[in-house]
Amino acid sequence: MNKSLVFGWITALIAMLGSLTFSEVLHFIPCELCWYQRILMYPLAIVLGIAVYRNDTFIYKYVLPFSVIGMALSGYHYCLQKIPALKAFETCTSGVPCSGQYINWLGFITIPFLAFIAFTIITIMMLVLRKQTKKA
Predict the structure, then answer these.
(1) Shortest CA distance to 12 belongs to which of 77, 58, 64?
(2) 36 Rama class: left (phi>0) / alpha (psi -120 to 50) / beta
(3) Which family does it belong to (predicted)?
(4) Longest pairwise C-alpha distance within the chain
């Protein structure tokens, strides 16, 4: 069993469960950008889980586009929250504002920041997996 693959799956699983905890247990209403991040993360938990079960080391080809786009989207979302000048470019038009912060741990850890870290870890694990697979 490949450690990079397992670590990527565990990261996606924790991110998905954390997201569901924020919305279903703590009753935080996701903004529009949060929904897009969920659309990118939730399938990764399933696809990477199946890949771990089958030891499919070529899954990186399908995971990398999702994780890289997720990194970009969550990075943009985090910047909307932390850079006041960017609020003029906010895309959320109804409901919860994308610049809102349900959590702000240590002054910089917000939900989009957590998503960015998860997408980054998954991306790194898939790049490592790709390198390992090409050597084999």
Answers:
(1) 64
(2) alpha
(3) Belongs to the DsbB family. BdbC subfamily.
(4) 50
**How does 32-70 read in b/e, with b if 16+ C-beta sit within 10 Å?**
bbbebbbebbbebbebbeebbeeebbebbeebbebbbeb
pTM for the full model?
0.95
Handedness of CA 70, 71, 73, 74 (dihedral sign): positive
How buried is 11 (Cβ within 10 angstroms: 0-12 exposed, 13-18 middle, 19+ buried)?
Answer: buried
CATH architecture, domain defined by 3-135: Up-down Bundle (1.20)
